[in-house]
Write a structure and sequence with these properties.
It contains twelve helices and twelve strands. By secondary structure, the protein is an alpha/beta fold. The strands form two sheets. The protein has a six-stranded parallel beta sheet with strand order 2-1-3-4-5-11, with helices on both faces. The protein has a six-stranded mixed beta sheet with strand order 7-6-8-9-10-12, with helices on both faces. The protein starts with a helix and ends with a helix.
């Protein structure tokens, strides 16, 4: 993990010093401004913009899934002459025409966290390897169950019916790690493995996680493994399980690595989570905009991947053989929110 972060820093080190960023403006457009993940992302962008002398304007959807507000924000950034846009898209395919308008206007567009569809619709993506993040928790869950994994009853708590790429990648990574055939890896919900009780959507928040968990428990009250798109959804799922006295015999796994989520791993609410690094995504994104403003340099993908990988680590206090992880003490030192 530390080696990857160091490599990331070296790979982009030239961006910070190369740019004379006077009179350069940039935009950060996130899905919401309340999720701690996006709050930390904004902090990283603001700090680096202040350091490099870039004027940063931040925008966010009213809720996760608010595509129209994000399109309006892109239009505003174009009109204001922004040099670069950092974007976490709510609708990763429908946003593409607006992104293309920005690129046609000479603006560098970097997707943060959530790849666009297709991924090359943005100039570059700075993100966690979301498939790997899902795969890590899938492998951990299967190894934790041992022989019982063959008879697991799995509830899948996804993000949204629009199936943004980040949600698809995490879902399909988890199932692959668990040993389940994902059929079409470009979408979730077409699997026919009898261990999957069903999929429901959470909008990435606690109330959505509680409601989705209740719906799946109505289908099968004996679910014993729960995949969640993020830690707020996991917290909601736990409350639904607690309401029926099942909080201690269901394995919940998640992705994010925020401080509340790591605390929930320590407390046994979540068995394991894959930690990502939003501050690094945003700060490196601002450095890339500074370099582009200075001499037209564009960021390059990590070797062997079609995006710039900002790292991921599995956080758990119950390590298993064959799955590399860090404990909650180290996870707390690296967490956000």
């Amino acid at each position: 993990m530390k080696k990857l972060l160091t490599t990331s820093a070296v790979a982009l080190a030239a961006f910070a010093g190369a740019a004379s960023a006077q009179d350069t403006s940039a935009c950060l457009i996130t899905k919401t401004d309340t999720n701690p993940f996006f709050v930390k992302m904004r902090e990283g962008a603001e700090a680096k913009a202040a350091e490099l002398g870039i004027a940063l304007n931040s925008y966010a959807g009213k809720v996760d899934g608010d595509h129209e507000t994000q399109v309006a924000a892109i239009e505003t950034c174009i009109a204001n002459g922004a040099k670069g846009i950092l974007l976490t898209a709510s609708d990763t395919s429908s946003i593409v025409p607006a992104v293309q308008q920005a690129r046609d206007a000479g603006i560098l567009v970097i997707a943060l966290d959530t790849p666009l569809e297709p991924i090359d619709s943005a100039d570059m993506t700075f993100a966690t390897d979301n498939f790997l993040a899902g795969e890590l928790i899938g492998k951990w869950a299967a190894a934790s169950l041992g022989d019982a994994a063959a008879d697991a009853k799995i509830g899948m708590l996804d993000l949204a019916v629009s199936q943004p790429s980040v949600g698809v990648l995490r879902d399909q990574g988890f199932l692959t790690g668990f040993g389940i055939d994902v059929k079409d890896p470009g979408k979730w919900g077409d699997e026919d493995d009898p261990r999957i009780v069903g999929n429901d959507v959470t909008q990435g928040n606690e109330e959505g996680g509680r409601r989705a968990m209740e719906n799946l428990l109505a289908s099968d009250p004996m679910i014993n493994v729960v995949y969640t798109i993020n830690e707020p959804a996991a917290a909601g799922a736990y409350e639904a399980l607690k309401a029926i006295g099942r909080e201690n015999d269901v394995l919940i796994v998640s992705v994010d690595g925020g401080c509340p989520g790591v605390a929930n791993v320590k407390d046994g609410v979540i068995g394991a989570t894959s930690q990502q690094y939003p501050l690094l995504m945003a700060s490196k994104g601002i450095e890339a905009i500074a370099a582009f403003a200075a001499d037209g340099t564009k960021p390059q993908a990590t070797d062997g991947k079609d995006f710039f990988d900002t790292g991921v680590a599995l956080v758990t206090d119950k390590p298993v053989d064959g799955v590399e992880s860090i404990d909650t003490e180290e996870g707390t030192n690296l967490c956000w929110g």
